[in-house]
Design brief:
This protein is an alpha/beta fold. It contains 4 helices and 24 strands. One of its GO terms (cellular component) is plasma membrane. Keywords: Cell membrane, Leucine-rich repeat, Membrane, Repeat, Signal, Transmembrane, Transmembrane helix.
């Protein structure tokens, strides 16, 4: 399937050049059953004048669908599969009759050429059900000024459909149970609509689903027990979901990304999570989770980013070996969790760690001496705690991290004069008791002296999947997930 391979490579390039602008679901298409069509979807640019033509009923259906989106011009095209417009893909059968396999609407960027929609009157036409070979359907920002329900007739699109993307369309109401009839669906993306109600259990019938993105809606109720063994991406961030993190997630053994952030999820992190040995990103931030840290986290051997910030009910100490064995962990964010006790020196033994955020807690004691020579750490936030004692860092590490080292609002921290740091932190960290300032010129580095200055990494406004980001912690996190997911798809 040469065309699909090329398409996946194009998507990989797109994902890598703009992961910090906006994230879109990776759309893939696989042959899941013997097909009457000849492999390799073709656009009007590749067809020849050999008498081939589009199946007549499908042609009429496309005219209806285009009129429903405000694209009346399509009715003037004698053969839609030979009409030379992007956004439609067709494939021939053995009789050289072409069938529509993909329809895409909406301007992803200034460079895309998918048909745009008339936002004031566009709707999803029921004529879609006449396209018996349709594999991919994509609507992006097409229906936002004419809000409507997700039509239940989409469940009649049959076993051929593999990708359904209805992204940022202002859709409201509940997710129809009928979507569970799309038994060969690989990608379901309903990101950033106004959907409410609960997540239907009928989605468990989508046994081959790889990506489920229901983020940035108003979904309520608990997260259902999903039993989807091929699921790679589960993104439910920015909803109103309650209840615990379901232990049944451990049955989704192919997961590489879980994002449940910005919900109202309660209870502890389930011990069964250690079965997800392919997991790369786990984001449970801004929920109502409670501690302690489960020892099962040590089993997440592939984990590269763990984000738990904003769970103020967690109220736990950090065990010395909480993250033992996480040799691939690059990003650890435990900010604003009401954590207490001391900082474990064992964190320095996470050899891949680059970003560590512990700010806004009630941590006490000194910064462990093991932090003195952390050569690879590029961002460390310890501000707004109750730390005491001398700062152990070497001067070259402090200068290398610059703004990304934050120690302010720890009244008990100090520097020894022999550390050669007394001219670095300004008023935010003073000399230890009984120390005198070294003679000679000094110049305070202003970017380390306070809480508000500098170009620091911004907290995200929405998940990976929904808005612009600063190039920093969340940009790196997005890149890791996109790269790993794209690599997995290309190696299938």
């Amino acid at each position: 399937m040469a065309h699909y391979g090329l398409y996946c490579h194009m998507l990989l390039v797109f994902s890598m050049i703009c992961p910090f602008i906006s994230s879109f679901t990776v759309i893939t298409s696989d042959t899941v059953a013997p097909s009457a069509l000849i492999d390799g979807p073709q656009t009007g640019f590749t067809m020849t004048n050999d008498g081939s033509h589009t199946e007549p009923d499908e042609q009429d259906a496309v005219y209806d669908i285009m009129r429903a989106t405000g694209n009346d011009w399509a009715a003037a095209i004698p053969d839609v599969c030979r009409g030379r417009w992007h956004g439609i893909e067709c494939m021939p059968d053995q009789d050289n009759v072409y069938h529509v396999v993909s329809l895409s609407f909406g301007a992803l960027s200034d460079d895309t050429a998918f048909p745009t929609c008339d936002p004031k009157r566009s709707y999803i036409s029921e004529s879609l059900t006449r396209l018996k070979h349709l594999r991919a359907l994509f609507f992006y920002r097409c229906l936002s000024r004419a809000p409507q329900l997700i039509p239940s007739f989409l469940g009649r699109l049959g076993s051929s459909l593999q990708t359904l993307v209805l992204r940022e369309n202002g859709l409201f109401g509940s997710i129809p149970n009928e979507l569970g009839n799309l038994t060969n669906l690989k990608v379901l993306d309903l990101h950033k609509n106004n959907l409410n109600g609960s997540i239907p259990l009928s989605l468990n019938r989508l046994s081959g689903l790889r990506s489920l993105d229901l983020s940035v809606n108003r979904l309520t109720g608990s997260i259902p027990g999903l039993l989807l063994p091929d699921l790679n991406v589960l993104d439910l961030n920015h909803n109103l979901l309650t209840g615990p993190v379901p232990a049944t997630l451990s049955t989704c053994g192919s997961l590489i990304k879980i994002d449940l952030s910005h919900n109202r999820v309660t209870g502890p992190i389930p011990d069964s999570i250690n079965r997800l040995n392919q997991l790369v990103l786990l984001d449970l931030s801004y929920n109502r989770l409670s501690g302690p840290f489960p020892s099962s986290l040590q089993g997440l051997n592939s984990l590269q980013a763990l984000v738990l910030k904003g769970n103020t009910n967690f109220a736990s100490a950090i065990p010395e070996n909480a993250f033992k064995g996480l040799k691939n962990l690059m990003i650890l964010v435990l900010s604003n969790m009401n954590l207490h006790g001391s900082i474990p020196g064992s964190l320095t033994r996470l050899t891949s760690l680059r970003v560590l955020h512990l700010e806004g807690n009630n941590l006490t004691g000194s910064i462990p001496m093991e932090f003195r020579g952390v050569k690879d750490l590029s961002e460390l936030r310890l501000n707004d705690n109750r730390l005491t004692g001398p700062v152990p860092f070497e001067r070259d590490i402090v200068w290398r991290m610059r703004r990304k080292l934050r120690l302010y609002n720890n009244a008990g921290l100090c520097v020894n004069s022999e550390s050669n740091l007394d001219d670095v932190f300004g008023s935010s960290v003073g000399l230890c008791e009984g120390e005198t300032k070294r003679p000679g010129p000094s110049g305070t580095v202003q970017h380390l002296s306070g809480a508000g200055g500098g170009n620091v990494t911004a907290d995200r406004a929405t998940y990976v999947s929904s808005g612009s980001k600063s190039l920093g912690f969340f940009g790196l996190s997005a890149f890791l997930v996109v790269f790993n997911f794209a690599y997995m798809l290309l190696s299938c």
